[in-house]
Amino acid sequence: MIEQNRNPERDDVLFAFHQTCDNPTAEQVSEWTRRYPQYADDIREHAALRTQWSSESDEPGDEPDESMLARGRSHALNLLHSARQEAAAAQNVSEKTWPQAVSAAGFDIPRLARCINIDRMVLAELNAGRMRLPLGRRLTDALTEVLGMSAAWLERVVTDLLAGPRRLGHAKADEAPAINTRSYAEVIQASSMSEDEKHYWLGED
To answer: Do the Cβ atoms of 40 and 31 come closer than 8 Å?
Structure first.
């Protein structure tokens, strides 16, 4: 409807008619046209439309046909497929090993050490499965941010590295070879970093 033909009073009357008469009867139409004779034609027209809509909604034809059901099933399957793909992608990320994640981020151990500004020996010890958990908060934050992984993932892969260390200690005659591991703090203290850098990585400032 163009602006100059708008009639606010008529619009209000028709809105009130719709609100009051959900499925208008002949008696209701007669009553409203008597109350608002100037809008009688509009009231009758809207009453006819409401009656038509009501009858159409009651027709069996509104029941979903086979094509509608097929479209619905297709849409549901597409949503399910997308959800499974997203779940698989998330699982693949969480299942990356330490070497895979480092490589995927475009690093090797020396470059990763330079990126987070830590002595490469610290990461070499971690990489070789010789650093015990828990890791320091600052190293955890730095590695998870640069590699785009979670803290839970980092803890898991470090546990895996510890379970398969690359160097064992000397075996005693009556014992299996011992695994030479050190705590995070011990590795930091044994590094060639300055005291200020060690304090930083140990979270002492």
So the answer is: no
